[in-house]
Amino acid sequence: MNHAQALPPEDTLAPQTLPQLLKAAGDPLRLDILRVMKRDSFGVLELCQLLDCKQSGMSHHLKVLTNAGLLTSRREGNSIFYRRAYLAPENPLRELQQQLFATLDAEPLPSELIERLSELRRERALASRDFFADNAHKFRAQQDLIASYPVYAEQIGQLLANTPLQDRHLALEVGPGEGEFLPALAKRFKQVVALDNASKMLEQARQLAEEQRLKNVEFILGDTRRLKEHKVLADCIVVNMVLHHTPSPADIFQDLSGVLVPGGALLVTDLCRHEQTWAREACGDLWQGFEPDDLSLWAGDAGLKEGQSVYFALRNGFQIQLRQFFKPSSSDSFPSVQGAKHG
Q: How high is the mean pLDDT of the chain?
C-alpha cells in the first residue's frame, strides 16, 4: 500500500497538552460535536445544520477540538470533513481521551438531534441513490474509470473460497451492481439475497440472475436498515465497492453485524484512501476511499474480529483493499489480525 498521500499520524496533527484537552472538553457545544461524531464524519455546514450554530462559531469550535487532539480532518472533494481523532497508544493523553469518548457515548443523544442526524443521512443516501438511478445505463463505463468487477474478481473469489464458515445456508450481497458476483455466491450457498436501494441497479442484477438461471437468489429493494424486517440472517455478507457510496459506512458495519450469524463472515472490497477528487462527480462517490484503520475501527465497534487483508494497486493510481471480518462465536476464536497479503 502506498502511503504517499496519507495523513500524518493523528497524534502528530497538533501539539496537544492536558490544559488544551480539558479546555476543549469544557464547552457543552463542543461535547455535542464529539457526541455526533461517534461513528461518522461531518462537514462544517452539516454540523451547523445539526447543532443550529453559525458557520463562524462552528469553525472556531472545530479548530479548538482539532488543536486539542480530539478531532482530525480530511478533504472530500471541495469539502473538509471532521471526525474523532484517536491518539497513538504511547501518547500520555490517550487514556483520558478514550475515557472522554466512552463517557460521551454512554449518554443518549436528544431525540431532536437524532432526527436531524437521520435526516442528514437520508439526504446523503438520496443523493447517492439518485446518482445510480440516473446513471444505471452507464454503470459499467463509470466503474471502468476506477475499478470494475473484473479487476478484483479473482481476488474476492479466492477470499470467499478461503473463508472458513460454519454453515452456507445464506449469503447476502449489499449493492450487487450488475450482479456479476451473484453466480459465485449462488454456487456456494443454498440461498442468496441481493440488496440495493437503487431499483434500476437491482433490476440489472435481476436480469443477470435470470440469464444465468440462478434459482436461489432473492432481491430486496432498500438499505441495510431494512434487513431485520426481512428476517435476513446471513452466514456470509459481501460488500464490493459500495462503502464509499454510503452516507455512513460505520453504520453499515453496525447494521450488517446485526444480521450476521455467530461465526459468520463479512467480506469488504473497497478503495484505499485517495486524492482523486474527480471520482466524486464522475462516479457518485461520497468518500474518497478509506484508510485500512477506518474499516478496522468500524468493524471492531460493531463487534467483529479482523481476518485476512489483501491490498493491491491499479495502474490508474487507485488501490484496493479486500478485508475479512468475523462475528465471534462461542466455539470459534479468531486472532485480531491473521495476516496481510500484498498483491
A: 86
